[in-house]
Design goal:
mainly alpha; two-stranded antiparallel ribbon; 2 strands; elongated
């Protein structure tokens, strides 16, 4: 981290939610990518959409103050999406999660350890 840089901080609560949802999201994203390769035009059923949206809503909520939030959509449960559409939506969440971590989880130049920038 450079000196005289405008440093932004997050909260312990947001870090806790990130650390809880990120592994779940990564597992889900990989599974949907695999299913999309097998049958890209396949449609998700309503229970899968509800399950995915529950996780996406938690992520969207803790990213509320981040600029990327305005690009994060949840899945439609009225018009059930195809796997290929879900992969596209999940890729936006993946990028937002990566941005959150790179913004707030930084290396201390003195100790060479990574730490969260928490208020």
């Amino acid at each position: 981290m450079k000196k005289n840089e405008n440093i932004e901080y997050t909260t312990k609560e947001k870090v806790n939610i990130f650390e809880t949802t990120s592994p779940l999201f990564n597992s889900l994203y990989k599974e949907i990518q695999d299913l999309s390769k097998k049958k890209p035009d396949g449609t998700l059923n309503e229970s899968k959409v509800k399950l995915i949206n529950r996780l996406l809503n938690d992520i969207k909520d803790f990213l509320i103050d981040e600029q990327e939030n305005k690009y994060l959509d949840i899945l439609s449960d009225e018009n059930l999406p195809q796997y290929s559409d879900v992969v596209l939506i999940l890729s936006q969440y993946s990028a937002a999660l990566q941005k959150f971590k790179s913004k707030y989880y930084v290396r201390n130049e003195i100790s060479c350890e990574y730490n969260w920038l928490i208020k």
